[in-house]
Amino acid sequence: MKSRWFVCLLASVVVMLAVDRSVAQGSTLLVDNFTRDSRLNTNLWTPNSTFLDALAGASSSPPASFVSPELTFGHRSGMRMAGPTEDYQTTGVQSLATFTPPFTVLAYVTGDHGTADLFEIFLANPDLTQFLTVTADVNPTYDGIWATAPNISEMWQLGEQFSPSISPALYTTYQVTIKVDTQGAAIAIVENLAGTVLSTVSNLETGTGPFYLVLGQRIGDAPEGSQVADWSYVTVTTP
After folding, report:
1. What is the CATH number of the domain that holds 111?
2. Which three-class secondary structure state does DSSP give residue 76?
């Protein structure tokens, strides 16, 4: 418990530094430091929408059902998300705003426990024809961090594993960066808290949007059980 508390505290400190850095990088389109929130900021996010229902359907084969996210907030953990417990379930919170490239998404997230996709970042346009996903899967069959886009595979497929391959570690905070340029070409990067690049994917042709941002998780065909992840901080910026 002590080491887990220290990880949460260290993540909170890094988040504070990230806030200052993201503002310096360019125009800020969205920023939410979940470690300062006591509830979901409904000026920025929604936990239920017809878009989330459609996204859930597209995220698994056979189509998943959307389950409302179970959200709790703490100054150490940030936004703790749970919800899916059975096969073919997806949950998440959706940005109210859409974002048109070029932009950069930066998120700090920690997997707590689970059997499948502990956390997943979705970027998708309203009709789901353009998308990019970054998924941390702890199912032994698919263990790794994966990304997909229309030029790689369907949304419900894991797509391409980051290179070099990495196994998502529990109670470890990852910094996930997604950069989408004006033409819709994207790169995704996973770093540790020290800013060391662990793995990347660079051949993602996601499209030009506009895109909703969804912070979520899901279970496809995997052992049943609760998926839990802590989101510390997220921002969307332009150059």
Report:
1. 2.60.120.200
2. coil
- How many structural domains comprise the chain? 1
Give per-residue burial for 187-224: e unless 16+ CB within 10 Å, then b.
bbbbbebeeeeebebeebebbbbebbbbbbbbbbebee
Q: In Å, how far are 7, 103, 119, 198, 210 from 192, measured between CA atoms?
A: 12, 21, 16, 7, 29
31-52 per-position pLDDT tens digit: 999 999 999 999 999 999 999 9
Contact between 200 and 188 under an 8 Å Cβ cutoff? The reply is yes
Q: Which domain holds residue 128?
A: 2-238
Residue 36 backbone dihedrals phi, psi, to 5 degrees: -105, -5
pLDDT tens string 129-175: 999 999 999 999 999 999 999 999 999 999 999 999 999 999 999 99
Give residue for tokens 């391409």: 160
CB 109 within 8 A of CB 213: no
Residue 15 has pLDDT above 80, yes or no: no
Question: If you search the block for the tokens 């200052």, which residue do you land on?
Answer: 20
Closest CA to 168 of 158, 153, 156: 158
**Residue 143 burial (10 A CB sphere; 0-12, 13-18, 19+):** middle
Q: Please enumerate in sequence order all residues whose Cβ is within 8 A of that of 127, keeping only pairs 6 or more positions apart, or say none.
A: none
Strands 27-33 vs 228-238: parallel, antiparallel or unpaired? antiparallel
